Each structure stands twice: as C-alpha cells, then as structure tokens.
Amino acid sequence: MHEASLAGGVLQLVEDTARREGFARLIELRLEAGQLAGVDVRALRFALESLAPGTLLEGAQIEIDEPPGQAWCLPCGQTVAIAQRGDACPACGGYQLQPTGGMELRVVDMRVSDD
Amino acid sequence: MCVVCGCSDSSPAHARHVQQAGGEPGVITVNPANGDLHFGAGAARVSVPGMSQARAIKLETDILGANNRVAQQNRAHFEAHGVTALNLVSSPGSGKTTLLCATIEALKQRQPDLHVAVIEGDQQTSFDADRIRATGAPAIQVNTGKGCHLDAPMVAEAFAQLHTHEHSHDHEHDHGHAHGHDHHHHGDAHSLLFIENVGNLVCPAVWDLGEAAKVAILSVTEGEDKPLKYPDMFAAAQLMILNKTDLLPHVKFDVARCIALARRVNPAIEVIQLSATTGEGMDAWLHWLDHAMGAHHHHHDEPVSEEAALRQRVQQLEAELARAKAALASGSAA
C-alpha cells in the first residue's frame, strides 16, 4: 500500500545523489527490503516501474534483495529464521521471539555512468 | 483501483501523481478558516528524503531516513512543548473518532486544565475534525489526498497550524493567560496530542511520526484474528484497545483468542477493553493516558532506547553463547 511513497523516497535519493555526484545515467540500483520490513517487494517493484518513465530510474536495472527475517528465541536461546511477525519459532514452536534481522529498508548502492 | 497504494486512479495517472509530488516541494493548500491541510489535489504525498554520504555511490541509506529525521524533530518539539503525542491507528470504522470525542469529554470533567488537541488524518473531508471541534478541543484536519498514511512532515505542518490557530482561539475565548511564542509557554502543564491516522492497518505501521506511542484500536465487530493478519501494526503498537465491547453479546468475537494472537506478534502489548459509547472500561483508558503522560514526562525517549538496549543485550547474549559453544566444542575435543 505504502510502496508508492517508498518508491518516491528511492527516486528522491537517486536524484539527490545524481545532483551531488553529477552522473548522467543510472545503470543499476540495488535495494534491500527485509522480510520483516513491512514492505511487499512486488508492489515496490511495480511502484518503481510506474514511477520510472521520464526519471533517472527509466531503463535502470533494479535489484531488490530480501534479507531473511531473523528473531531471537528466548526459550531456545538462539537466533531462528521467521518469514513474518507472528510466526512460531521453528525449533520450539513458541512465540517468545524478538525480531533481530530482516527489518532493513534501504538503498544499498548504484552503478552509474557519466554519458 | 491502483494495486500499489489503493488509489482510485489508474496506475499511469497515479505514477504521475507520485512523480509530481516527488519532484515539487509539495502542493499543500491551507484552509485559512481553520488551518486544515490538504496535501495536493489528487497527488500522492511522498515524503522527500534528503541525503548524506560520499562517492563510490555506495549509499547504504535508509529509505525512510528523511521521514525519521523529521519524526525525531517532532519528538523533540513535542517534548519542548510538554506534549505527549499518541498515534492512533486502526482500520476504518473501528470507532477512533467516537473514542476521541468520548475521551475529550471525560477529560474535560476530570482534568479541566489538561490541554487536549487532535490532528485528524483522512484522505478526504473534514468531517472528523468537525466532530472533534464540536467538543471544544482544537483540531486540524490533514487530508492526505491519495496517500494512505500520515508521514512526519505532515504532522510537523499540522502541529504548527494547530499552534497558530490555538493562539487565535485562545484570544477569542479570552483564556486570560497570554501566550508567548517561546517553547515553554505551557509551563509545566502537560498536554495531550492525539494523532488520528488514516484508517489503515498496513501503511501507518512503517511511518514514525514522532509519537510517544502507537495505540491500535480494534473493534469487536471486526475479526479477532486481525492482530495476526496485520502483524506489523500490532507489533508496532504499545497498546491495543478493544472497542465496542457493548456489542460483544451480538457478535462472534473471541476476546481471549484476540489477545493471545496480539501477544503472539507483540508479547509486551497492553490491552484495554472498552466501549466508547457506553463508557464501560473508559476508566482504564484514562488511567493509561495519565500514566503515558507521566512516563513521557520523565523519560520521553524510552521506547527508542529500550529497543536499542534490548537489541544490544541480544547481541551480547548471542556472543556469549557463541563463546560458550566454542569452549564446549574445544573442551569435548580435548
């Protein structure tokens, strides 16, 4: 739902960077949207594609990595993988979990050219 | 309907909206009569992140960074004004505005000196702000246009408007104490700011507005499994209010299961059951507000530092565990 706003934020970051670095063309853009970041990657990609025409995003290849969700399980005393909040611990079946990874939502890097 | 943001426009038009909003500093119209804000006629308001980082075009930049910076400014601003801000989130129709009106009326009786103001977020209309103003409390309506959530810059604008309009409001009603423009003009008096977010259980979870806490409202006419269906929101909330409990005899809603599911996504979530219509359970809510203002007053940024501390502790324990395992492995090998 809010992926359109996030796509706008990504474009703004790209444009600010272009202004500062003075590059002409964006070749590749790499993003990270963790499994627990509350973002639908498909919708984010769609929003970026809708936004692209006439902007620096047009023609750029966009990679979106999805770092896996991780949580600390209190009873197990270990880090376990969870796909979403509210999932049970795969080891003990409990719910005393504190998410520790997969909450990233960021622009990692970009490949640009000056012509 | 646009599948991305739920706007009614077709996607190309929608994309143009986003583009315009992203490119221009934002089209905001202000209603001079009451300070209501409308973010762009038909444009999706997009938060405009700034940037800082060096060459190599390795950015590692938080997409929500710009919003979060404004949220932190809001938080500092609220603190300077002695304001406890609460971000009320729910699906449409959970009874947020009715609860707010009932809360304001109850607070008028109990704590007539307490200053209460409201920022109302909706896509369109000022119906909700009108309802709040009818109670006598100052309110600013923020229309997000196509946007599905409030963001921190919107709240900053609205808070400024609230301030401007309250000044004139106070003069009109001759409250008898002059308002200075310094940050401490409320003195030690505490005040409450309710931010009623756009009715939506998905997007507002991601946007920090600078609030002291998010309060999720769920009515018993909705599904009891919503905490699990929309886990991000209930994970982000400090309190869940189960509203419309007067209707429990007429609906199939398993309160115990609902609470269990909410605790599954957020073991620390507090729960209050109430009916804004009959007033049942309102005492617990008013008490919670009292507590929130007290806690906020003394250690205002606790939620943030608590989370950081918790995260740090988890890292420590993991490191300890790794060391213990390594020691154990080398011990058994020897």
Helix content of chain B: 40-55%
Please give the radius of gyration of chain A in angstroms.
17 Å
Nearest-integer average pLDDT of chain B: 80
The ordered string of helix (H) and strand (E) elements of chain B is HEEEHEHEHEHEEHHEHEHH
Strand content of chain B: 15-25%
| C-alpha Rg of chain B (nearest Å) | 22 Å
Approximate shape of chain B: globular
Taken from the alpha-carbon principal axes, the silhouette of chain A is elongated
Number of helices of chain A: 2
Query: pLDDT under 50 segments of chain B (min length 5)?
Result: 1-26, 40-56, 169-187
The neighbouring-strand order within the major sheet of chain B is: 1-2-6-5-7-4-8-9-10
What integer is the average pLDDT of chain A? 93
- Unreliable stretches of chain A (pLDDT < 50, length at least 5) are none
Oligomer: heterodimer
Number of contiguous helices of chain B? 10
Please describe the biggest sheet of chain B, giving its number of strands, its sense, and whether it closes into a barrel.
9 strands, mixed
Care to give the gist of this entry?
The complex is a heterodimer of chains A (115) and B (334). Helices cover 26% and strands 31% of the residues of chain A.
Record keyword descriptors for this entry.
heterodimer; A: 115 residues; alpha+beta; 3-stranded mixed sheet; 3-stranded antiparallel sheet; 6 strands; 26% helix; B: 334 residues; alpha/beta; 9-stranded mixed sheet; 10 helices; globular; disordered N terminus
Chart the SSEs and their pairings.
The complex is a heterodimer of chains A (115) and B (334).
Chain A (H helix, E strand, L loop, with lengths): L2 H19 L3 E9 L7 H11 L9 E5 L4 E4 L4 E4 L15 E5 L3 E9 L2
Parallel strand pairs in A: 1-2
Antiparallel strand pairs in A: 1-6, 3-4, 3-5
Helix pairs in contact in A: 1-2
Chain B lengths: L10 H13 L4 E3 L6 E3 L18 E5 L2 H16 L2 E8 L5 H15 L4 E8 L4 H8 L4 E5 L8 H22 L17 E6 L16 E7 L6 H4 L1 H6 L2 E5 L11 H11 L4 E4 L8 H17 L3 H32 L1
Parallel strand pairs in B: 2-6, 4-7, 4-8, 5-6, 5-7, 8-9, 9-10
Antiparallel strand pairs in B: 1-2
Helix pairs in contact in B: 2-5
